[in-house]
Amino acid sequence: MPERTSPPLPYEGIRVVEFTHMVMGPTCGMLLGDLGAEVIKVEPIDGDATRRLLGSGAGFFPTFNRNKKSIALDLKKPEGVQAALRLIATADIVSENFKPGTMKKLGLDYESLKKLHPKLIYVSHKGFLPGPYDHRTALDEVVQMMGGLAYMTGRIGDPLRAGTSVNDIMGGMFGAIGAMAALRQREQTGEGCEVQSALFENNIFLVAQHMMQFAATGKAADPMPSRISAWAVYDVFTVKDGEQIFLAAVSDKQWTIFCKAFGLEDMLADPRLKTNNDRVLARDWMMPMLRSHLAGHSAAELAAVFEKNELPFAPITKPQDLFDDPHLNETGGLAPVRMNDGSESKVPLMPFTLAGERPGIRLQPPLLSEHGDALLREVGYGDDEIAALKAQGALAGD
User: Fold this and answer.
1) In CATH, 15-207+328-392 is 3.10.20.70
2) What is the pTM of this model?
3) Residue 3 reports pLDDT greater than 60
C-alpha cells in the first residue's frame, strides 16, 4: 500500500514578504508560515534586533520566526529597496510593523505598492488604528495600562501588566486572520486590500467582557485579585509544606462531589451553602474553614482526589517546568527548535490541530540572510549582481 501522506497545508503556494521585528509582526508571519505559506523575512543588514536581545526578550526570535526564510537588505540604499520591490512583485501578502510613516518614506507603503500590484494584500501592525492616538508610540505595556488590562490584573492601586506579551501576540494573530479574510475576499473580487491590526484595539477586545459587565449590571468590574468571583470555590490554596494548588468547584454538582470526597458532609447539609450563589455570599466564613480543612494535605494528594473525581484543579507551574510536561510532550505540542546560539531547545507549536496533526516546523528560525542569494536568483538577479549588492553593503553575506 502507498504510504499515507499528510494533506497539503492550507496556505501552500501563498508568498508573504514581511518587514517585521520584535513580536507583533513576526507572530503574523509565523502563523501564516505554520499554515504553509512561504514567508520571506526581510531583515536589516545587522539582523532583527531580537537575535541579540537579553533578559525577557532572549527567546523572542526562536519563538516567532520559525517557518521563514531570511534575506538581509539595507533599505536605506536604493539598491536594497529595489531588491525588496522585486521580491514584493512575487508576493501575495506584505506584512510590516514599523512606526507610522516608515514604509512610506521607503516607497513601500500600501498606497505606493497597490498601484503596481492591485492584487497585493498589505498587513500593517500598529499601536493604534487611525485616529486621535495614532501618533503615539505604543508598547504592549502602554496599551495594557491605558486599556484597562493592567488595572484588572493587579491589585487595587497596583496596576500590573499581564505575564506575557498578550497584545503583541494576539495583535499579530488578528493581522493573520485579517490576511486570511483578505485572501478570501480577493478570490471574490480579484483585488487586494490593506489590513490593519493594532495593539490598543486588541487590548480593548480583551477587556470587553469587563466593559460589558458594567453595561449589564451598572457595577464596575473589580480587579481580578479582589473581584467577587462568580463561583464559590475558585481559589489558590496553600497546603502542606507551603505548596500551592488551584482548586475549584463551580457547580452545585461539583460542590456535592467535593464535600463527599473530603468528609465535609456537615457543610453539604448546611442550608446556608445550598446553592453556588449562597456559597458566594458565604465566602467570608466558608473559605477559611475550607483552607483549614485542606491545609494538612499535600498538593499531590489533593490533585489525585480532584482528578479522580473529575473536579477542576491545577498545579502552580513555572514556565520552565512546561518543557517536561507529559501532556505537551506526548501530544506533540513541543517541537525541536534552533536557538540564537545554535543550540537546540523545544518550542510550543500552534494550539490547534488540522486533520489531527499540529502544524509543525518545516524551516528552523533562519540564520541571518540564510536564503538571500537563492531568493534574489529566483527574482532574476545574476551572481555578479548579487556580488555587487554585497559589495555595496545593500545585501548581507560573504
Assistant:
1) no
2) 0.92
3) no
